[in-house]
Write a structure and sequence with these properties.
The structure is a homodimer of 343-residue chains. By secondary structure, chain A is an alpha/beta fold. The first copy, chain A, is 39% helix and 17% strand. In chain A, helix 2 links the parallel strand 1 and strand 2.
Chain lengths: 343, 343
């Protein structure tokens, strides 16, 4: 792999002007934030989302850009629909997925259908109907499981601790095989804990940070398991969206897998302290590890993203305190749209 | 992980006396050889096989033990059937699968259904209906992809080069997660190239060695890609069956993944030379790499099995020349049962 031209950081945004882009999971958390960015850059944006209740898709996420994007409600498992929708799209940001670890353990077959079958459907659609598309897949750091060493780089073993992690790993590997064997340009970004506006906060089955945000906003107790010393790295959603924009605009990443996280690690305890300070409400409550959580816990985890930084010049630009402040401000204004039982 | 008692190598066979055992893919190559061993050891043996044409299942594989095993034709994807069949089984040797790399690239969805969906179905059946079962999964060295170093041990990255390898890796990981989270005792044996009697030789889409065997028997040309210098390790099927017996009889392997291969590496060229010598017929023909093969080729590959040897005392006992001789003798006598269009 070689790096893109030194000027890439100045020019990648221009790449998207009039570019025909599709985002699967486009009404979800990261997808919708990416859509806002793409609209600003002048792209022709098609958002595909199933709006399955509780999965994160929310029409309010595109408030303000409704008239500047096309929305197509569809399930990425549905092959004939995907065969049609991929046609003519230059870049596909492939973010649709089931993201709850907990749900995957309760209903592994649905997780398999959404995170594996749908990825094959999407990639087959490209292979057969749009082989020149570029696909950027939303992977996850979760596939590493409990790390042997920190920070975790891409040479670390993939050893997921739950069904969702296994299926997300397979979904990622399909992209790499389609890149290498069938020439459908593809790469994967292994995202760490992403947070920010437009994240689902209605239940606690999609990771802890959105849920903590809600508890803080409502002045409720935030439960921390054990002593809260386990470390994580966090990336504000605008920086995550920027990672997708960069990956979509250069061929040097094709066939690669890249951590997107870091650069520093924060304990659960310090995260909650910071969140409570910024929220001015809520309270930390330390409790024993529930057995079912302990069994799939991975201890401390943070990533080394230097491979992606070298390839694309990406940097995290929004610090954690600043990001939490922006996120709280968003939900203070719009929480009604995220707490209704129907999105 | 600790080793089993020093006497394990003397006692593990006794473990199977009156033991209630199930083999999925039990009419296939390795499954049926394992069945012959288990019958000899006095086990109560249930063979489950779908007999999907071209997959390797063959009723002739149990010739001689038909009256001493129970055969149940069923598809492991079918949940209600598996929920019933797993009940009361002490050990489940889980060998059912789609094993053709080539078919997986032509029809990835079927590969997904057979190698992922069916594994979840089997494991859910155990979790709900027989949580004290011990499951030994037939993994494959193919999940490693192109190796970074030789020999390959279990700390090597899993980086499959085709859809079959991705799905087999996911199937393996499900077993480990069910072991760790749901307490369904399970482990995986990552098998290298296994050869011997009862292997499918009717077509060339399930690996090269069965196919080479057939060509030699018929006195035809054996095509070798490039100079044939790429190395592989080979294990005779009786030794592979012994690996399953050992893994099924001890808890020290639970939650583990183990290479089963080695100990030495042989080039394609030397393998073919030896095979032609033993067959007294056929001819080697060196040809250029076909592009579609080259793209998913992994170069030389051989495994370090010392982890499994330490855990169970397993050793390869049949050398390659001896194994080829025995295999040729088997097919000379029984080839009609392996060349008919219907098994």
């Amino acid at each position: 792999m070689t790096a893109p031209p030194a000027t890439f950081s100045d020019t990648y945004r221009e790449f998207y002007r009039h570019r025909r882009v599709m985002i699967t999971g486009g009404l979800g958390f990261i997808g919708s934030n990416l859509a806002h960015r793409l609209v600003d850059l002048g792209a022709d944006v098609l958002l595909v989302d199933s709006l399955i209740p509780d999965y994160g898709g929310n029409l309010f996420n595109i408030a303000g850009i409704e008239s500047r994007v096309n929305v197509n409600i569809a399930d990425v498992r549905q092959a004939t629909t995907m065969n049609y929708l991929v046609q003519g799209r230059d870049v596909i940001f492939n973010l649709a997925g089931q993201v709850s670890h907990i749900d995957s353990m309760r209903d592994p077959h649905t997780d398999l259908a959404i995170n594996c079958q749908s990825q094959l459907t999407m990639l087959e659609a490209c292979r057969q109907h749009n082989p020149t598309a570029k696909v950027v897949y939303a992977g996850t750091r979760q596939i590493y499981g409990k790390p042997d060493r920190l920070p975790v780089d891409e040479t670390h073993l993939v050893r997921p601790t739950d069904i969702n992690g296994i299926n997300k790993a397979a979904g990622e590997q399909y992209h790499i095989v389609y890149n290498n064997v069938f020439g459908v340009a593809a790469c994967s970004l292994r995202l760490t804990n992403i947070y920010g506006p437009r994240q689902l906060i209605r239940h606690n089955r999609q990771g802890f940070i959105g849920w903590f945000m809600r508890l803080a906003l409502e002045g409720r107790d935030i439960q921390i398991y054990g002593d809260g010393s386990q470390l994580r790295d966090f990336v504000y959603v605008d920086d995550a969206a920027d990672a997708f924009l960069r990956a979509g605009a250069t061929d040097v990443v094709n066939g690669g897998v890249f951590n997107v996280g870091g650069p520093d690690a924060v304990s659960h305890r310090d995260l909650v302290t910071m969140l409570l300070e910024e929220a001015g409400a809520g309270r930390a409550q330390y409790i024993e590890w529930p057995e079912e959580k302990r069994r799939i816990d991975i201890g401390s985890f943070y990533t080394d993203s230097s491979k992606f930084v070298a390839a694309t010049g990406w940097q995290r630009t929004v610090g954690l305190r600043d990001g939490l402040r922006r996120t709280l401000a968003y939900y203070r204004e719009h929480s009604a749209h995220y707490l209704e039982s129907k999105s």
